[in-house]
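agent> Task received from the user: take the single chain below, predict its 3D structure, and emit structure tokens. No templates, no multimer pairing.
agent> Plan: (1) validate residues, (2) run structure prediction, (3) serialize to tokens, (4) report one or two observations.
agent> Step 1 OK, no nonstandard residues flagged.
tool_call: predict_structure(input=
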Amino acid sequence: MEYGKQQQQNGWRSVGRFLRPVVIAASLTLLAFFFMQGLPLAQTLPRRTDLVSALVIQNGEHKLLMEQEEIVSAAEVAAMLAVRFPVKEEGDPDTWYEFTFQDGTVLTVGVRENHVLYRGKWYTGAASTPDLFRRLTGARFFSVPAQETPDQGLEKR
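)
tool_result: status=success, residues=157
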């Protein structure tokens, strides 16, 4: 009887010896991922149904979104931003969204150069998310002139 208990304890110890390095490696990998890629705002912005409006501002142009479909589209664009480390930044963002909720609170999300403004604080932007944010904002909410492709330039000659 004593032998069976000892064998069972040895079995749990071997499982523990196997799982410990796996858990440590997974934790370090996750930490390295967030260190390099940043924390996506999609993880910190809860999916809200109480949005009343979204004001989109880019290069001095303003567009007020009141329809739920447009507001959700703006929230999706803002949620793709990722932040890493807090920085000291002064000034206004060049592209930003002001989300207004039913209770009257306002959430501002914006970018300037490679920095991201979120909840009144500036962070370094991860990867190329600030550039992508600017392009998507221009493409979805403002008229962006089509860029000339090399083939179009040859046809004009």
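agent> Step 4: summary for the user.
Confidence is low (pLDDT under 50) at residues 146-157.
agent> Done.
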